[in-house]
């Protein structure tokens, strides 16, 4: 007998989903300056909470050195690099899970795509010293110490996400 998309499923780690529908991560362009959750962010995810039993957020930058990745010239990417983000992320978690859903927060470091830093006159960091001449701004190779710090930033972002719910 084939499984139906509306059948419940239990994931390997034990989480139970009421169906097999997943909202994939999509960039909403709804963040505020500094990577904060906006009312538009909450409305977007809240309106989709009944669409699937697992919702995956758009990418959140984990380090101030890793974002924002500007689109359309505005700082619209969400971040979770500071404890100041927890309150908004808590509201986002509530919107995502209001119908009994599970949620996944997508974490990321923008690296050479963190063009928002260039627009503010800050260094844009890259994993290696390649020729990025196609970019309209200079890029600097990360040091070993900076790489280790970014790894720690991912861990700190996970802790913030857990605190937010």
From TrEMBL:
Cofactor(s) this protein cannot do without: FMN
UniProt KW keywords: Flavoprotein, FMN, NADP, Oxidoreductase
Coiled-coil residue spans: none
Domain NADH:flavin oxidoreductase/NADH oxidase N-terminal: 6-165
GO MF, one example: oxidoreductase activity
InterPro entries according to UniProt: Aldolase_TIM (IPR013785), OxRdtase_FMN_N (IPR001155), YqjM-like (IPR044152)
Official protein name in the record: NADH-dependent oxidoreductase
Lineage: Bacteria, Bacillati, Bacillota, Bacilli, Lactobacillales
């Amino acid at each position: 007998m084939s499984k139906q998309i509306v059948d419940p499923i239990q994931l390997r780690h034990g989480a139970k989903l009421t169906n097999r529908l997943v909202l994939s991560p999509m960039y909403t362009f709804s963040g505020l300056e500094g990577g904060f959750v906006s009312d538009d962010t909450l409305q977007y995810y809240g309106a989709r909470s009944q669409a699937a039993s697992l919702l995956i957020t758009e990418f959140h930058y984990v380090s101030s050195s890793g974002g924002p990745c500007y689109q359309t010239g505005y700082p619209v990417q969400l971040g979770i690099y500071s404890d100041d983000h927890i309150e908004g992320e808590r509201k986002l978690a509530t919107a995502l899970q209001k119908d009994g859903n599970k949620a996944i927060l997508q974490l990321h470091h923008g690296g050479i795509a963190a063009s928002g830093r260039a627009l503010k006159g800050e260094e844009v960091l890259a994993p290696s010293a390649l020729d990025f001449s196609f970019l309209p701004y200079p890029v600097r190779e990360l040091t070993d110490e900076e790489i280790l710090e970014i790894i720690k930033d991912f861990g700190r972002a996970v802790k913030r996400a857990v605190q937010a719910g």
